Amino acid sequence: MTNDQLLIDAYGRIRDGVHRVLDGCPPATLLYRPDPAANPIAWLVWHLTRVQDDHLAELAGTEQVWTRDGWADRFGLPYEPEATGYGHSAQEVGQFSVTSSDLLGGYLDAVHEASCAFLATVGDTDLERIVDRAWEPPVTMGVRLVSVLSDGLQHLGQAAYVRGCAARAGS
């Protein structure tokens, strides 16, 4: 297995896991919050997808799917178009109102397709390229790709956990 195949497989696990969480998820459950400071499933899915879209588009040198393909307009969120959810307060998270699994899953699929197209072009030497000098040591493309992957998997796990909490709460 090559590095690009490994990355495509790993990012596919995020997509597949998110679709399992979204499958048959009622709209009210998508916005369920175990407490007022917790993140709902819909926000977690949007956030992990926005981060992947933002970071991989930057690495690829392309426009984000979010703006390029009109997803920002379809979602109609009260956030700036460049928002990814990073640093959102509990109040800002509470403003998230999307209750369509199809919309969330559609955006995820579009981002996954763009991600795979980029990842298929990534060679071994690309992984060593410095992409962010704001950190010490500077961040390579390989480190950034693993960071986004780790973040996505963690948020997927959180979304699955919240879905279980909502089911136990009768939501």
Secondary-structure map:
Elements: H1 3-22, H2 27-30, H3 41-60, H4 65-68, H5 71-75, H6 90-94, H7 101-119, H8 124-127, E1 130-132, E2 139-140, H9 141-168
Antiparallel strand pairs: 1-2
Helix pairs in contact: 1-7, 1-9, 3-7, 3-9
Task: Describe the 3D structure.
Helix 1 packs antiparallel against helix 7 (101-119) and helix 1 packs parallel to helix 9 (141-168). A two-stranded antiparallel sheet has the order 1-2. The N and C termini lie far apart (43 Å). It has 9 helices and 2 strands. A hairpin with a 6-residue loop joins strand 1 and strand 2 (139-140). The mean pLDDT is 97. It has helices at residues 3-22, 27-30, 41-60, 65-68, 71-75, 90-94, 101-119, 124-127, 141-168, and strands at 130-132, 139-140. The chain is globular. It has 171 residues and is an all-alpha fold.
